[in-house]
Amino acid sequence: MSPSLGTRRRRSLMAGGWALVLIGVFASWVWSDRLATAGRPASTAVAGVGTFLLFGIAINLLRRAHPESAGGARAFWTAGVLACAAAGVVAGITPLAISAATTGTVTTSISPVGDNAAYRLSETANITSDDYRRTTLDVTVHARDRSAPLLRAVVSFADGTADLRCSNTRPEWIHEVSTVTLMCEEFTSVSSLRSISAVSVLEP
After folding, report:
1. What gap in Å lies between CA 136 and CA 184, rounded to an integer?
2. What secondary structure does DSSP assign to 172-201, as a single string?
3. What is the pLDDT of residues 38-77, one digit of tens each?
4. If pLDDT is split at 50, 70 and 90, which confidence band does 2 have?
5. For residue 112, is the peptide bond before it cis, meaning its omega torsion is within 30 degrees of 0?
């Protein structure tokens, strides 16, 4: 390879490497934004893997642009690539693992089962914690006058978690049998939802 061709190749590698660094910086910003945005564990994982993949490729291109590097420098380049690979694996697994560990739906019994002239509640309800950091209680209402009343629920736990309060904000027209969603005041991990000891649903 002629010296001029080698110089052009080195410049191309350097330009490509630094371009990927800049793209990686932008990708890292997208990744951090995903981390701050609930409800997107899959896209957060993809953005994290892509960020460190770009950094790893950039380091490799810069290493190839300096083939004459001494042994210590070559070890530094190699360590950088390996660190990016390890970070990419962690970035890809962590959001999905957190989502799997904290979100889910639990079916629980209601006590007492509300019953009056206007409506009747089913004996069970579903309580869900989702990727948007919300916990909701879905109650089936058998309405006699086709309207769901304002409801308030208190969820108690056997594992020491503080009582969780949930409610709907307004009455609504429903069919004879419909599901009414009560929004809970705080997000509660599914691991705590599995230790529910009682759910009381009453009118305010």
Report:
1. 5
2. EE--SEEEEEEEESS---HHHHTTEEEEEE
3. 677 888 888 888 889 988 988 888 888 777 665 667 788 8
4. very low
5. yes
Average model confidence (pLDDT) across the chain: 84
Q: CA 189, CA 135: separation in Å to the nearest integer?
A: 8
Instruction: Examine the pLDDT at 143 and tell me if it is beyond 70.
Output: yes
The residues that bridge with 120 in the sheet, in sequence order, are 115, 142
pLDDT attached to residue 34: 63
Angle, CA 95 vertex, CA 188 and CA 138 arms, to 5°: 35
Q: Are 177 and 158 in contact (CB under 8 A)?
A: no
First to last CA, the chain: 83
> Which residue blocks in the chain are alpha helix, DSSP H?
3-36, 41-64, 71-102, 190-193
The rounded distance, in Å, linking the Cα atoms of 91 and 59 is 18
